[in-house]
Amino acid sequence: MRSAQPGTGPHIAGPNSRGKPGQASAVPRVAAGTLAALMATVTGCTLPPAAEAEDYPSAARAFGWTERIGGHEFNDPVDFGTTSRDGDGEWYVWEGPGYQGRGRITRDNVDVRDGRLILTGKPDGSTGTAAYYGATQKHGRWEARVRIPSGDSGYTAVALLWPHSQRWPDDGEVNYLEAYGSGATNTVTVHDASGGEHVFVHSDGVRVDMRDWHTYAVEWTPDHITAYLDGAPVWTMDDHAMLPPGPMWHSFQVDSQGVGEAKVPTVMEVDWLRVYRL
Question: CA 149 to CA 143: how far, in whole Å?
């Protein structure tokens, strides 16, 4: 898992920049629109009651993603104890050393209450990670509604795709939400090491107040990876050599970055996760 593996933190550089992080650049602002509420009829997934119209923007509604195959609304309890580390089941809560050995990932920092998945990074360096194996696939679409009401620059909050093979970074990693604390910039990063060297490409940071609720999405096809914010595409990567070679699962996590001493907890709240086929 990313938290227990060597890797890189978020970087803000030019679009599709590769290799080592560059200098920070100006970041574009993305205006969130309002789309009409629309609920798709889906078999086998728990959806909100039809009467609860969703008046916030969504990539799924904007682009007609209707073949939903998994996810969670967090209105019901989640059993984090029935899934193996190899991805046999739906959810797995990681325990062990934190990102690059910083702090520790613990079950106590993952909770579901009030219809939300809540991950916490505490001032003592302990953090939380919740991996969703329920709709592991090669190519697809993932969307989540997330906010970070409290944050410290010593942590990153991340929503990502991780290789089912667990061969990292050889089989890639796709971070479609990555931000320090409750900061105002989201960065999208794609990792790869299939050529024998760990490289990555990443977007310019996208300005967004992550203390508020927003929808973040990623589409992975045989030709490209596109990230979305509030229903609008914000970055596309079409370098075929960087595209992941095999199936991936989804993970939410708060990682300790070891940047000074955290003074306040970082809290990542997830309203829902929805997974679609292409």
Answer: 19
